[in-house]
Design goal:
The protein has about 325 residues and is of the alpha/beta class. It has helices at about 5-10, 15-25, 45-60, 75-80, 95-105, 140-150, 165-175, 185-195, 205-215, 260-275, 280-285, 300-320, and strands at about 30-35, 65, 90-95, 115-130, 155, 180-185, 200-205, 220-225, 250-255, 290. Strands 1, 2, 3, 4, 5, 6, 7, 8, 9 and 10 form a ten-stranded mixed beta sheet that branches. It binds aspartic acid (ASP). Aspartic acid (ASP) binds next to helix 3, helix 7 and helix 8. InterPro entries: BUG (IPR005064), Bug_dom1 (IPR042100).
Length: about 325
């Protein structure tokens, strides 16, 4: 609690009311931290830094990105859920906010109870990649090879709760094989391992993989959307390559601790919506295959409703698969 508000609280309700009103109109009075659950340089970090740079123009304060990695991206929400609800600590996260409650039996937070909601950002396709020297050159060839090799193939991911883990799980199920999975603190280090030929397969978001695909540093088997994407018009979908109905899209939300003042939520939401129209942000996202969400998803209600439906959907699928992370 700001010192001025505390002092006012000691001198009576009217002074307190005035001090709170003053603190809220002064918000933000200093830099805001945006917590990213994965390693710097990865797809979530790429969106966070570009979004933060745009939002800070409206807020008049810098947005400082803090990478809090670990446990498949669940340590960061646990930290933000317990942070001061003063508007100076925010979280950006993806589908992991909806899958973690089913994957983790001892989760340190409840995504549907411990947060205030700011809004959604963008939807990002995923891509299935292999190290450059893996023999198969296309998805049908990879499907055949993966069935032959089984767990001799190493799939890198960012741990249970990461979308790279979710995509890997769906991929091995669709192919009918079982990879050996190697977890990293994010798909930035996972990509380094793939480029270094230390792992064989990686399913990751276009916000990190498009530059590597265009530079032909990796083998590329397709995108995880049902339709081809504008950013990679010649790239086949996994559905075209033989995995009928295979779809994984990565959505992103901005959160604050439960109890964050409405005035702060409104200001951050206004800065978010301005950023989602800022060509400096939208052009960069388009190049990286990310699709800005429509206005109705850019609101607190638009995020909260979506999170509830995704939690119900993925929760049922994960519980049916009987997989747990802890
Ligand atoms: N999006 C995560 C990252 O930025 C990776 C993942 O969720 O798979 O590293």
């Amino acid at each position: 609690m700001p010192a001025a508000v505390l002092a006012a609280a000691l001198s009576g309700p009217l002074a307190l009311h005035g001090a709170i009103a003053q603190a809220e109109t002064a918000y933000p009075a200093h830099a805001i931290t945006l917590v990213v659950p994965f390693a710097a340089g990865g797809p979530t970090d790429v969106v966070a830094r570009a979004l933060g740079a745009s939002m800070s123009k409206t807020l008049g304060q810098s947005i400082v990105v803090e990478n809090r990695t670990g446990a498949g991206g669940t340590l960061a929400p646990a930290f933000v859920a317990r942070a001061q609800p003063d508007g100076y600590t925010l979280l950006i996260h993806h589908n992991g906010m909806a899958t973690a409650p089913a994957l983790y039996r001892k989760l340190q937070y409840d995504p549907l109870k411990d947060f205030s909601y700011i809004g959604q950002v963008a939807d990002v396709p995923m891509t299935v990649l292999a190290r450059r020297d893996l023999p198969p050159d296309d998805l049908p060839g990879f499907i055949k090879y993966a069935r032959e090799q089984g767990n001799k193939l190493n799939l890198a991911n960012a741990g249970p709760g990461a979308v790279s883990q979710l995509c890997g799980m769906l991929l091995q199920e669709a192919i009918g094989t079982q990879f050996t999975t190697i977890p990293y603190a994010g798909t930035a280090p996972a990509m380094s391992a793939l480029l270094g030929q230390q792992v064989d397969v990686l399913c990751d978001q276009t916000t990190q993989t498009i530059p590597q695909i265009k530079a032909r540093h990796v083998k590329f088997y397709g995108v995880t959307t049902l339709e081809r994407i504008k950013a990679l018009p010649d790239a086949p979908t996994l559905q075209e390559g033989g995995l009928k109905g295979f779809e994984v899209k990565v959505w992103h939300g901005i959160y604050a601790p439960k109890g964050t003042p409405q005035a702060a939520i409104d200001k951050v939401n206004a800065a978010l919506r301005t950023a989602l129209k800022d060509p400096a942000f939208t052009q960069r996202m388009a190049e990286l295959g990310a699709e800005i969400v429509p206005p109705e998803k850019q609101t607190p209600q638009g995020l909260q409703t979506w999170l509830q439906s995704e939690t119900d959907k993925w929760g049922a699928m994960i519980r049916k698969a009987g997989v747990y992370a802890d």
